[in-house]
Design goal:
2 copies of one chain form a homodimer.
Chain A (H helix, E strand, L loop, with lengths): L4 E3 L9 E3 L23 H4 L5 H7 L5 E3 L2 H7 L7 E3 L1 H7 L4 E6 L10 H13 L4 E6 L3 H12 L3 E7 H6 L1 H9 L3 E5 L5 H9 L7 H14 L3 E3 L6 H20 L6 E5 L4 H15 L6 E7 L4 H4 L1 E6 L8 E6 L21 H8 L3 E6 L1 H15 L5 H20 L4 E6 L7 H7 L1
Parallel strand pairs in A: 5-15, 6-7, 6-9, 7-8, 10-11, 10-15, 11-14
Antiparallel strand pairs in A: 1-4, 2-3, 4-5, 12-13
Helix pairs in contact in A: 2-11, 3-5, 4-15, 5-6, 5-11, 6-8, 11-12, 15-16
Chain lengths: 428, 428
């Protein structure tokens, strides 16, 4: 009775370097632009916003970047995370496909976000920064930054999309328990927030607005920097630890994935699991199909336009060359708040434009159905975001069944849904 | 920078047998009594309530009992669980004590309860039972039974203490997501529930009342059995997998605990971690001090009387020889709903009476303070129940500091508190 099979690496096998896909991309992405001058952004122009070392990573084309020891030590709290062969899900689907998932939900905050939060807090801390700001949608990122700041003795202000702040109170309690301060966005703490509230006092917020508020505080408060949980190159870089571990674990399982699947918000968990596999294709070795699972309510890769756009709503960030639905796009209030971001980021967008990434869009009903099936077979209640990856995987597994062919599918379980139970309840 | 250190066993080292402490007890516990005749209860009298194999275990004095393969396979979903050296907590306390904890919060339902839920569902399933009933306080046990029943295709009805049903809605959503039916207790689904509601329509419920309701349904509905998440010998037996794993992991760490600490509700997580270590003392080998951490609101071991008492409020269960506050005791509405049970069970009570178990009582403020310190140092937000074990461990660590002596402390982190964030919020 093979109900489940975990592939568990030893702690000593936690990777010692992150993988930077920029080194292997056939076409480099266009540069970020300074929003005022429209000239390519220079690293030093970002240093008021981000820690210097993170800016260096943002512009780096080195293939491998060392993980600092203190960060790698903290990774040991929850890493290596398990790779699981989802026998029970396969059986429920009666599919010849072999389904594997990387379980990032085992981190103490319940998602993959901690992988970059620890790195970002560390680099800010060694630079002598004392305050950080950030935004959060569903709250996963805010929770991760809060515990990371607790480890490195940094103060943290989190602007949380008002919709989530009210709909997901447990998340803000988690942020508070770890010591971070959390405010509903739009708030009256920034001039941008006050402007929004003046024109629309009932505004429920978006991730773009929350970013604008966090950025405003970071650039106006002394010894303060901003941190972002997705989209940017250095964030994607830190998340490659997911795929690098998964690669070793797939080897333990004696398999290589035909398809690698992840949900897509700003690209961090997607790139994290996918890029290490994609590198073998870019280097002319093994082929792999990458599938970004988007919500129908916010399908930037599937339906967006590739152009320069802002990372936030107010237009305070650099201009990013990316697939975007427009920086003022306000998606429907779906439960997967972490996927309600308007743009696809520089690296993912270039790779998609070059034909290395596929995407699909999935409506909310299908994702919750998939999430419940997963919970009842594999045991873990997935985050609403992660249910998109599961739903896309189920689609592929059923296609394989129809075609009668075996296929190896790997998806990333980016987080658990224990704090999203109200969403499940409203689905049920 | 040693911030954390996990000791991780291979899957192949998941124990193949549970440990039954009855075989090693110097004084056997007095028998359970039939509540009508007051004669020692015969196994066959319990078979209408529990699966036969569980009844056999309840009366067994075999030292080792085989874990069935299908149960051990399902254990692999989350076992072996990590043993962690809590360096960050030690540092925060500036203590010479070495603190270890067994992390049972990594199970998909977030607590140790799954260890026995899987076993109980399995034995009922092989007997051909189709319906199970149970009660739940905080909801941890109900969640565990719900996923276990989903694996073995059993229907489940859960009576949830009304206080928790309303205060912790996420837990009931979890139970529902896995497929179980959940009702607030007292309910109008049983004659006992209706009787309570008639005399007190605003009754908030107790674990004892919920047990009475679940038992009533089990004995009146065809092909139905009852399951209990703590107190009984077979439940404690299944939980010894915690301590048996921890023993191997302490060996990996090159240490043996001077003190083993766990929170105490009905005794399942306490016995689970403690009994395997106690066996070496009973066999004249290594000494160990066991500490049961109770809430001041419900200190059955610390302040109860050792006598025969019912396991439920209505007086439907067999009479159990145990430390008890009385089966009609209604403890304060503390957040640690899982510790609001009136009695200590047969085995623990005998061992306590024989001097093998110490207990202490801790008030709610101290436990939440301990829980927050643990979250900010070790990363995991603990369940309100588990914060009692942490608070007791911190007391011991500070005593060691005062005495200037090194000591090895091991406690059980029975569950995480992600679904109890409202409790933390009201503390903060």
């Amino acid at each position: 009775m093979d109900v489940t099979k975990k592939f568990q690496l030893a702690e000593s096998e936690i990777p010692r370097q992150w993988y930077n896909i920029v080194a292997d991309m056939p076409n480099k992405a266009k540069p970020l632009l300074n929003p005022q001058t429209r000239e390519p952004l220079k690293p030093e122009e970002m240093e008021g916003l981000f820690a210097k070392e993170l800016v260096k990573q943002e512009f780096s084309d080195e293939r491998w970047i060392d993980i600092p020891d203190p960060v790698r030590e903290l990774y040991k709290m929850y890493r290596p995370t398990p790779l699981v062969r989802a026998y029970a899900l396969e059986k429920a689907l009666d599919t010849p496909a072999k389904i594997f998932y990387k379980n990032e939900s085992v981190s103490p905050v319940g998602s993959h976000k901690l992988n970059t939060a620890l790195a970002q807090a560390y680099y800010n801390s060694v630079q002598g920064i004392t305050h950080l700001t950030t935004e959060t949608g569903a709250g996963q990122w805010g929770s991760a930054m809060s515990i990371a700041c607790s480890y490195f003795n940094l103060n943290l202000e989190v602007f949380m999309v008002k919709q989530s702040y009210e709909q997901k109170p447990y998340r803000k309690f988690v942020i508070g328990s770890y010591g971070g301060k959390v405010y509903p966005s739009p708030s009256d703490r920034t001039s941008y927030g006050r402007k929004i509230l003046k024109s629309d006092p009932n505004c429920r917020g978006t991730l773009g607005m929350a970013i604008s508020e966090a950025v405003e505080v970071a650039v106006t408060k002394p010894n303060t920097r901003y941190t972002l949980g997705s989209v940017l190159n250095h964030v994607l870089l830190h998340q490659t630890i997911i795929g690098l571990e998964a690669e070793k674990q797939m080897e333990m399982a004696g398999e290589y994935p035909n398809k690698v699947i992840a949900c897509f918000g700003g690209g961090s968990n997607f790139s994290g699991i996918a890029f290490p596999f994609l590198r073998h294709e870019l280097n002319g070795q093994k082929k792999v199909k990458l599938i970004a699972a988007e919500p129908s309510a916010c399908p930037k890769l599937t339906k967006g336009k590739l152009e320069y756009d802002f990372g936030d709503s107010a237009g305070m960030t650099p201009l990013i060359p990316m697939y975007t639905l427009g920086h003022d796009f306000q998606p429907e209030q779906i439960h997967a708040a972490g996927l309600r971001y308007h743009g696809g980021g520089q690296l993912v967008s270039q790779l998609k434009s070059d034909g290395y990434i596929d995407s699909c869009e999935i409506d909310q009903q299908e994702t919750f159905k998939a999430g419940l099936l997963f919970a009842r077979t594999e045991g873990v209640i997935p985050a609403p975001e992660s249910t998109h990856a599961i739903a896309a995987t189920i689609r592929e597994a059923l296609k394989a069944k129809e075609a009668g062919k075996s296929e190896v599918l790997l998806f990333n379980l980016s987080g658990h849904g224990m704090l999203d139970m109200a969403s499940y309840e409203s689905y049920i």
